[in-house]
Write a structure and sequence with these properties.
The complex is a heterodimer of chains A (430) and B (226).
Chain A (H helix, E strand, L loop, with lengths): L3 H7 L1 H8 L3 H27 L14 H25 L6 H25 L8 H4 L6 H22 L2 H8 L6 H8 L6 H34 L11 H27 L8 H32 L2 H11 L4 H13 L1 H6 L6 H28 L14 H24 L5 H12 L3
Helix pairs in contact in A: 3-17, 4-5, 4-10, 4-11, 4-16, 5-7, 5-11, 5-17, 7-10, 8-9, 10-11, 11-12, 11-16, 13-14, 14-16
Chain B lengths: L1 E3 L8 H9 L7 H5 L8 E7 L6 E7 L8 H5 L5 E3 L5 E3 L9 H4 L7 E2 L8 H4 L14 E2 L5 H13 L12 H5 L5 E2 L9 H6 L4 E2 L12 E3 L8
Parallel strand pairs in B: 1-10
Antiparallel strand pairs in B: 1-8, 2-3, 4-5, 6-7, 9-10
The chains are: A mainly alpha (430), B alpha+beta (226).
Chain lengths: 430, 226
């Protein structure tokens, strides 16, 4: 058993943010809380009056909520997936970044499906999906996969945090009961470490197929429908790629901000951003490949209905968004990430922000143009989100950031015990 | 159902009759512009050419009642299903408003209650007591006036016989002044709809999707050929 007090002192900068909260904390948290609470009002408004207060109509019946649903679920992907893959492959550089990745996963995964709740005509009856399950519906598959993924991710985050919580338990007298409860009596005995090792190894392996299945099934919500440019076999891998792409981008941004705000320069070094940037570079190429393949196949195949959607995206009323998507998803991030000179912390952060905007646009462009151009030519729709939908989106994003900020005030954002273990292993000459 | 496009004059009586029979609520002009108008029976019109060479075509669009309905399999709570008679029905109390059925309907004939349904005051008294008045947040659609079919079935059962051809017809068919709409049992080879559906003029919408609609259209004749 190692001395927790010594470890805590050694990793002082990591624990520091838990001990005090200055004015920067409050000026972040208060506006975020206001936006977050505002979205409750907006939801109440919608609940009372009906979905008519949104900008939806016929045939545009799935819109911004679905876009945000896919977007947030996408973000949730990289987290655990990256963390698990890097753990399995024993990539040494991953250690300081995994916790942040897991946090992003859990909160994005809480934010994503909430959109479905907003989107339901009778939100209070959402549990009927479980109660009156109809197994042929892709939405039920979705519900099942997301629930499993959410539970696994929370367990994953939690289990790998137990030793850290134990350190905190011994250090914070005021919150001891809280940490004591969560630490499950961890004292670092050999048996406990063995159990932890087994459990985490199992979770690492389990979480990868689950994560892949989640976004595949999310894509099937669209892909299984016979609508033009949704009904595509490439959707599964395309969505998963996009998900990991936007997920890594989010982790880079979150890690960048945490590093700056909590002065974690010592742990989150340029090498981490460089390596994450390389992963991002790979994903950007994959994204481009998939997008190109998808659009070229559609154009070449030349189905009437497909082409109607195709042209409205490329050159019609959605063309501005489309080319912005290409700009943000590929043209900006690719050169930045490709050159070693610009693959710095600032460079990768800029690329990441660009990717997040681009991927949001991609989700929008996947969902909305298809609905605006149904097969039969008489039903055409235009869509503009209403204040309610924007409020919900703002509230959700605020809630997501707020959750990360609050989390960072109660738990260390870098895995202390793993850093310590790694250091010891290195000292042992491995 | 068989719809003879040659006979359709585009008078929209079917649309009105359907609205009356099935308590289809009014959206109002402003909401209709946002795409919130409901038409269980809709009349699509197409204008070809410019004056004086103008052609007008009309297509009445009820639900197609597909034999392989894409809408029913996607519902996560089984609120919509194809009943044994082949009617694609909606169970209003079960529907939670996911709207996946709407997005997967290639004919876009499913409608959502964006607000609580409303009618002009003077209209409220005339609502059909046999038909459920939907609520906000659920999907609704044409069901071939299922209440009429049920009543006819009960009557036939009492008299221990099968329903006769033409005994039961939906409101749109009943009201059509030019008799462009026909309704009956497609399974009965002797029924009028069955015979008409085998006409050389018969076609269905988006047949390549293999949804097997049970609404057949009879093609219009050539305009310039007399």
């Amino acid at each position: 058993m190692r001395d927790n007090e010594t470890i805590a002192r050694k990793y002082h900068p990591i624990i520091e943010p838990l001990t005090r909260s200055g004015w920067p904390f409050w000026i972040t948290v208060i506006p975020l809380s206001i936006i977050f609470l505002w979205s409750f009002f907006a939801f109440g408004w919608q609940y009372v009056w009906g979905l008519g207060v949104t900008g939806m109509g016929h045939p545009m019946s799935w819109t911004l909520y679905l876009v945000n649903f896919v977007f947030f679920i996408g973000i949730s992907h990289a987290g655990t997936l990256i963390s698990a893959i890097l753990r399995i492959t024993d990539a040494g550089w991953r250690t300081p970044i995994t916790r942040a990745a897991e946090i992003v996963t859990v909160f994005a995964l809480a934010a994503g499906p909430t959109n479905i709740l907003f989107d339901l005509g009778r939100s209070a009856r959402f549990y009927w999906v479980a109660l009156h399950a109809q197994f042929k519906s892709p939405l039920l598959w979705d519900f099942t996969c997301i629930m499993i993924y959410f539970v696994t991710s929370v367990v994953f985050l939690y289990v790998l945090m137990i030793p850290d919580i134990a350190i905190l338990r011994d250090r914070f007298t005021g919150r001891r009961w809280f940490y004591k409860l969560l630490s499950l009596g961890w004292s670092g005995t050999e048996r406990q470490e063995r159990i932890l090792k087994t459990v985490s190894a199992f979770l690492c392996i389990a979480v990868i197929p689950i994560a892949v299945s989640v976004h595949t099934v999310v894509s099937w919500v669209f892909g299984m429908q016979t609508q033009p440019m949704w009904h595509s076999t490439i959707f599964g891998p395309y969505f998963v790629t996009g998900a990991i792409y936007s997920g890594i981008a989010t982790i880079i941004i979150v890690a960048g901000i945490l590093r700056r705000v909590y002065h974690l320069e010592e742990y989150l070094q340029p090498i981490h951003f460089n390596n994450m940037g390389l992963l991002l570079l790979t994903m950007s190429l994959l994204w481009f490949y998939f997008t190109f393949a998808e659009y070229l196949t559609t154009l070449y195949g030349g189905g009437t209905h497909e082409l109607a959607v195709f042209w409205v995206k490329i050159a019609g009323k959605y063309s501005v968004m489309f080319w912005l998507m290409v700009l943000f998803c590929f043209i900006i991030p690719f050169p930045v990430l490709a050159m070693k000179r610009s693959r710095t912390i600032l460079g990768t952060s800029i690329a990441s922000i660009s990717i997040l905007i681009g991927m949001w646009l991609e989700r929008y462009l996947i969902i909305i143009p298809t609905l605006s151009e149904p097969r039969l030519p008489y039903d055409r729709g235009a869509y503009m989100p209403s204040w309610v939908e924007w409020s919900m989106m703002a509230g959700l994003s605020a809630g997501f950031i707020l959750a990360i900020v609050l989390f960072s005030k109660f738990f260390p954002v870098i895995s202390i015990w793993e850093m310590e273990k790694e250091k010891n292993e290195m000292a042992d000459g491995r | 159902m068989v719809i003879d496009l040659d006979r359709c004059t585009g008078c929209q009586a079917c649309v009105v009759a359907c609205r009356q029979e099935n308590n289809v609520s009014f959206a109002g002009e402003k909401q209709a512009k946002l795409g919130r108008a409901k038409f269980w029976m809709n009349l699509i019109s197409e204008v070809k050419g410019t004056y004086p060479d103008v052609e007008m075509h009309f297509i009445p669009m009820p639900c197609m009642h597909c034999d392989h309905p894409p809408c029913t399999i996607v519902c996560p709570v089984a609120a919509t299903y194809k009943n044994p008679e082949g009617i694609v029905a909606q169970v209003y109390p079960r529907c939670i408003g996911v709207r996946m059925c709407i997005s997967n309907c290639p004919y876009t004939v499913r409608y959502f209650n964006w607000y609580a349904p409303s009618w002009p005051e003077e209209y409220e008294k005339g609502l059909n007591p046999d038909v459920f008045r939907r609520r906000k947040g659920i999907t609704e659609k044409c069901n071939f006036c299922i209440q009429r079919i049920r009543r006819a079935k009960e009557k036939a059962k009492k008299e221990k016989r099968r329903i006769l051809d033409g005994e039961v017809i939906p409101a749109c068919v009943e009201t059509c002044p030019s008799e462009a709409l026909y309704f009956g049992d497609l399974n009965d080879p002797k029924s009028q709809v069955s015979r008409l559906s085998k006409s050389r003029r018969a076609f269905r919408l988006l047949e390549d999707l293999a949804t097997e609609p049970k609404v057949f259209y009879l093609k219009e004749g050539e305009w310039n050929e007399g």
